[in-house]
Amino acid sequence: MEWLTHWLDWHAIAADVRQHFWIYLSLPFVSAIIGYVTKVVAIRMMFQPIEFIGLKAPYLGWQGIIPRNAAKMAGISVDLMTSQLISVREVFTRLDPDRVARELEPALIDAMDRITRDVAERFQPGLWSTLPEFVRRRIVQRVQGDLPGMVAGIMRDIHTHIEELFDLKTMVVGNLVRDKKLLNRIFWETGRQEFKFFGTAGFYFGFGIGIVQMICWVIWKQPWMLPAFGLFVGFASDWLALQMLFRPLRPRRVLGLTVQGLFLRRQQEVAHDYGNLIADQILTPDKVWEAVLKGPLSDRLFELLQHHVKLAVDEQAGAARPLVAMLIGSRKYADMKVAVAESLMRELPHALQSINHYAEDAMDIRNTLIRKMQALSPEQFEGMLRPVFKEDEWVLITVGAVLGFLVGELQVFLMVH
Prior knowledge:
This protein is mostly helical. It contains 25 helices and 4 strands. The protein has helices spanning 2-7, 10-19, 21-47, 65-68, 70-85, 88-92, 97-123, 127-130, 133-160, 162-165, 168-178, 180-190, 192-220, 225-246, 262-265, 267-281, 285-294, 298-317, 321-328, 330-352, 356-363, 365-374, 378-382, 386-390, 393-416; strands spanning 53-55, 60-62, 252-254, 257-259. Strands 1-2 form a two-stranded antiparallel ribbon. A two-stranded antiparallel ribbon has the order 3-4. A hairpin with a 4-residue loop joins strand 1 (53-55) and strand 2. Helix 7 (97-123) packs across helix 20 (330-352), helix 9 (133-160) crosses helix 18 and helix 14 packs antiparallel against helix 25 (393-416).
C-alpha cells in the first residue's frame, strides 16, 4: 500500500472534501435523480404523445411507442386473447336461442308491425289500407306470433356459423387503433405497478452508483468520469430494472429467499384488472353486436337473416303463395322478402339493446378472462407486457444513457467552475 499512499495525498484529499463537502455529497443524489428521471422519461415515451409531434421529414419528433405501433400492439393483445384466453364459439354458445328470442320479442313485435305495414304498402300501394282492420290485425298477429321461432332459428344458425359471422380480431384491433388512449390504458393498467417500480428502481440504482462516482471523483477528479458515470447510470439501471421485472420467470430460491420477476408475481392481480377492463371497455355486448351487424362479415349475417325471412314469408303465404306471387308479380314477391330482411336488419341494433344485461351475464366474458389468465404459464403471461418494452427498447435505453451523459457534463461544468 506504500505506493498508493505515496501516489495519493490523503491530507489534500481530506481538505478538498471538507471544502466541497456538500458538493460531493450531492453526487449520489444527482445520480439517483438521473436514474429516476431517465426511467420516467422512458415510460412517458412509451405512451406519449398519442399523435406524432415534430417534423416527419427529417424524423425530428416523437410519437409514443404504443400509439405509433397501435396495430401491432393491439394485435399482440388480441393474439393472446384469442389463442389463450377466450373462444368466440364458447362465448356465443352460452347464449340460449330460446331465451334470446323471449328477450327480443317485445322490441321486435313493435318493429314487425311497422315492417309489415311498410313493406305491404311499398310493394302493393293502396292494398293494405283497403283491407279490413281485422284482416290487417290477423296478418300482423300471425307475423308476430311466428317471430320467436324465427329468432331462435337465427340464433341457432349463428351458433353454428359464428366464426364466419364474427371476426373478433378485426373488431378489437379496429377499436384499439381508433382509440389509442384505450390501447394505452390497457398496457398501463396491466403493468402500472411495474412502471412505478421502474422509476423507483432507477432512483436507488442511481444512488448506489453515485456513491461509487463520488469516491472516484474525490480521488481522481477526471473530467470524463461524471459524464461516463451518468451514461452508465442511464443505461445500466434500465437494463437491470427490466431484468427484475421479468426474470426469473418462475419462482427460484436464492440465498434462502424466493425470487421471481415482479410482473410475474402479480399474475393473479393483473388477471382481475385485465379481465375487468376488457369486459367493461372492449368486449361489451354493444360492441359485439355492432361488430356482428356492421363489421366486415355482416353481409354473411344478412344472407343468413334473409334465408330465414324468406322461409317465414313463404310459410306465412302458405297455400296462397302462388296467388300472392301472381297478384304482385314473382319479381316483386322476391324483392318483398329482401325488403323485409333489410328492414329487420335495420331494427336489430336497437332491439339488441334489450338483451345486453342477459348477454353480459350469459357470455360471462369478465370471469372467463380472469380465470384463463390466472392459469397462464409464466412464459405466456410474460407476453402480455414484455412486448411493450421490447418494441424500440434500444431507443429507450439510448435516451436514458444520453440524458445521463448530458447531466454528467453539466456536473463537470459546475464542479470545475
